[in-house]
Design brief:
The complex is a heterodimer of chains A (297) and B (449). Chain A is mostly helical. Among the domains of chain A are: 1-132, Leucine-rich Repeat Variant; 232-297, Leucine-rich Repeat Variant (Alpha Horseshoe), CATH 1.25.10. Helices cover 68% and strands 0% of the residues of chain A. In chain A, helix 10 packs parallel to helix 12. Chain A is elongated. The mean pLDDT of chain A is 96. Chain B has helices at 3-18, 21-27, 30-33, 51-55, 94-104, 114-119, 135-144, 159-171, 186-196, 230-234, 261-264, 266-276, 359-363, 379-389, 397-416, 433-437; strands at 42-47, 84-90, 109-111, 125-128, 148-151, 176-178, 203-210, 286-292, 304-311, 316-322, 334-340, 343-348, 356-357, 420-423, 428-429. Chain B is globular, with a radius of gyration of 23 Å. Classes of the chains: A mainly alpha (297), B alpha/beta (449). At the A-B interface, helix 2, helix 4, helix 6, helix 8 and helix 10 of A face helix 1, helix 2, helix 6 and helix 16 of B.
Chain lengths: 297, 449
């Protein structure tokens, strides 16, 4: 290791907070070879040293964050090596968080292994959820089958957040689970992904759901309808919204009216019209606003 | 869309209008249609009952009652509470929950899980005063449950969270007011009217000042106290062991939970700036931050910091500086100075309690035909009025999201130590992959947007 890097590591371990600070601020200029040593120092019993090492690792990450480069690939390689060899969970968690910011396909198989580790699976999901691309989608979806139910829900949430189509069959399967929490997690993922499938998706039965689960289910349907309207599938969106106009609670009716106001078709206008004289002032006002929006479009 | 479909729809709209229904509704203001019966009382639920959250509590106020509003919550001094009552309380700290229930009196329903409170059909609206990292999930959930929302500032912790809050409020046609109460202060309104009527000319620069953040120390991590559900406290944020210096009150100095002075007080000072400069639905095109975090200790938010934001069309510069250069015209521990080509104006603080401006703005009355700026009757009162009228409140969620975006992007540039080029419409950083990944943060466990 060069003299510059040796001095840098010595400074990270300094008893002076100012010296440590000056070191971590220049970490982005260091050879990525310092990463394994910094990872070890992150587990130091001296909190100031552990923090300086963590900050230095973050600075190295940020120094290669703008775009892909040879240096970024070298940093990622170092992170992955440490991730597979360092024993400290806090270090692995930190590296997974750093890799979420700069990692690509090369990171996916290593991070995916931790999806089976009860202590690190949350961090692995965090990492993979942020990494763009089909490889991360496949890793998240591929872990669902063997995951416990609560973590299945976490993986479905990641796929929903990513609007990943590979999540649709997993979401559809989850919606039929007798575990209502998992069924709702499936519905949430389905609604957020917002894509239609060849075979119709069967939503969880409302019977047996808690009030909050019903709320989540209906919200998922609204999000799905929004996606349909945005993707040009207005007929399906209108059908969903019309169903919501029959809901008892005013906010579901209002949500339907808001959705219908964005679909510039006569059928949507007629559905809005039906609520212009609603006895509920909130529904009535929302219908008037929706009607005006239609008129202006 | 084809012309045929478009014209058919218009024909339908025209026929319906000719039938009288639409004409009737078009000439009756929404506020008239939504006026409650005299007996209507808004039922509030409260989520988060620390120091701030408890200030929102209220015993029953019936129509005709003259009950003075809390002077610390933004607005003129002579305002009165609207008919309302607090009926349900929620906190993940049972000690705080009990203390709040005792303070309120009566028999409010008590919850530890905010979702149970939101299931309560008796509640019309909620006050959310949880730590910042919970604001988005709770606000979105409240909208899903049909509640109107008053959420404390800053609105959100990430750009994605803010946009999701805006979408939820729109999706459910809910009223969402963000607690940057300065906009409801008389002095801020006077300053806004003064500047918008051109009294200092065209404003090209706004300079904010604020004292530095605390540096913190090393307090050992510990077991959480039995009254606190710490896992719920961390909620959607990345896991970190319990430490009393990172939770109640002190969470503000951690980027993952609070975000430092720029997010705490910046959400006041820059809320006024965005309002005066009419930037509630846009943002800067570049952000560049410099400064230093604590050299040691547990906190990681900036101690000193200068952030320069460049806006386009119109072109102006906003500078957040801690400590910065206090205005010489008016004394205040923090605030902003507006630099026009014909003069300057200072607005100190910008919060719900101490906001002040110079006498020339206080004395100013717009000429006939001049710009008349809406004057809020009080921040909470404006929220309650909008619950009834369904109109947008003065610090609506889009405005709150845009102010929070300034704070978030300032911290992002500070953390990355580089200038960010920002597309305020697409809400994306130009040519910076890492910065874009940091615009959202995966939620932990079951907590997702």
């Amino acid at each position: 290791m060069a003299e510059k890097e040796a001095q840098f590591l010595k400074d990270i371990e300094s008893s002076s907070a100012d010296v440590r600070f000056a070191a971590w601020r220049r970490a982005g200029e260091m050879d990525p070879q310092v990463i394994p040593a910094l990872a070890n120092l992150m587990a130091s019993s001296q909190p100031g040293v552990a923090r300086a090492a963590r900050e230095a690792l973050e600075a190295i990450t940020h120094s290669v964050g703008v775009a892909n480069s040879d240096r970024r690939r070298t940093v990622i390689r170092q992170f992955l090596t440490v991730l597979q060899n360092n024993r400290a969970e806090t270090v692995k968690a930190q590296l997974l968080r750093q890799l979420s910011l700069i990692g690509g396909d090369e990171t996916v198989p290593v991070a995916a292994k931790f999806l089976k580790d009860p202590k690190l699976r949350e961090e692995a999901a965090f990492c993979l959820e942020r990494i763009p691309g089909a490889a991360a989608d496949a890793a998240l979806a591929g872990a669902i089958a063997s995951a416990p139910d609560d973590f299945k829900a976490r993986l479905l949430a990641a796929l929903g957040h990513r609007r990943s189509e590979v999540g649709i069959p997993h979401a559809a399967q989850a919606m039929q689970s007798s575990n209502k929490e998992l069924a709702i997690a499936g519905a949430k993922a389905w609604g957020r992904i917002g894509k239609t499938t060849a075979a119709p998706v069967k939503l969880p039965e409302r019977a047996g759901l808690t009030e909050w689960q019903k709320t989540e289910l209906l919200d998922s349907q609204l999000r799905f309808a929004e996606a349909q309207a945005a993707n040009g599938n207005a007929a399906e969106a209108i059908a969903i919204y019309k169903g919501f106009l029959d809901e008892k609670e005013e906010h579901w009716q209002c949500a339907a009216l808001v959705g219908l106001s964005k679909i510039h078709l006569p059928e949507a206008a007629m559905a809005i019209y039906s609520k212009l004289k609603s006895r509920n002032p909130r529904v009535r006002i929302t219908a008037i606003k929706a009607w005006r929006k239609h008129s202006e479009a | 869309m084809s012309e045929k479909i478009r014209s058919s729809r218009r024909e339908f709209l025209g026929r319906a209008a000719a039938g009288g229904t639409v004409a009737l509704f078009d000439i009756v203001p929404a506020r008239v249609l939504a006026q409650p019966a005299p007996s209507d009382i808004v039922n509030f639920g409260h989520i988060g009952l620390g120091g701030r959250g408890r200030q929102f509590l209220r015993p029953e106020v019936k129509p005709g009652d003259k009950v003075r509003a809390n002077p610390n919550l933004g607005g003129p001094g002579d305002r009165y509470l609207r008919p309302s009552r607090s009926v349900a309380l929620c906190d993940i700290d049972s000690k705080r929950l009990d203390e709040a229930a005792t303070k309120l009196g009566g028999k409010p329903r008590l919850y530890k899980d905010f979702r149970r409170l939101l299931e309560d059909k008796d509640i019309d609206a909620v006050f959310i005063a949880s730590p910042d990292h919970w604001h988005a999930i709770m606000t979105i959930a409240a909208c899903q449950a049909g509640k109107d929302v008053y959420v404390e500032k800053p609105a959100c912790n990430t750009i994605e969270e803010g946009r999701a809050m805006v979408n939820a409020a729109e999706r459910y046609a809910r009223v969402v007011q963000v607690g940057s109460q300065g906009r409801s202060q008389t002095a801020a309104w006077q300053a806004c009217q003064y500047i918008r009527n051109g009294q200092i000319g065209t404003v090209r620069k706004v300079t904010c000042w604020h004292y530095a953040s605390p540096t913190g120390d090393w307090t050992p991590d510990a077991e959480p106290p039995p009254n606190l559900d710490y896992d719920a406290w961390v909620g959607p944020a990345p896991w970190i062991p319990y430490n009393p210096k990172r939770t109640h009150g002190a969470f503000r100095w951690m980027i993952d939970f609070g975000g430092g002075q720029i997010r705490d007080r910046g959400a006041h000072v820059m809320s006024i700036a965005n309002w005066i400069m009419d930037c509630d639905s846009t943002g800067p095109v570049s952000i560049e931050a410099t400064g230093e975090p604590p050299h040691d200790g547990m906190y990681d938010s900036a101690v000193t910091m200068t952030v320069t934001y460049e806006f386009k069309n119109p072109d102006w510069t906003l500078i957040w500086a801690q400590p910065g250069e206090p205005s010489t015209e008016l004394e205040g521990r923090y605030g902003a100075k507006y630099w026009g080509d014909k003069g300057t104006l200072t607005v100190t603080y910008g919060d719900g309690q101490n906001t002040n401006t110079e006498q020339k703005a206080k004395d100013y009355k717009p000429l006939l035909g001049g710009v008349e700026v809406f004057r809020s009757p009080g921040h909470a009162e404006n929220f309650e009025d909008c619950i009834r009228t369904r109109e947008k409140p003065i610090m609506h969620i889009e405005a709150g999201h845009r102010v929070a975006s300034l704070c978030i992007l300032g911290n992002l540039s500070f953390k990355l130590q580089r200038k960010l080029l920002w597309d305020p419409k697409a809400e994306r950083v130009l040519n910076d992959e890492e910065a874009n990944r940091m615009l959202s943060r995966p939620g932990r466990g079951p907590w997702h947007l």
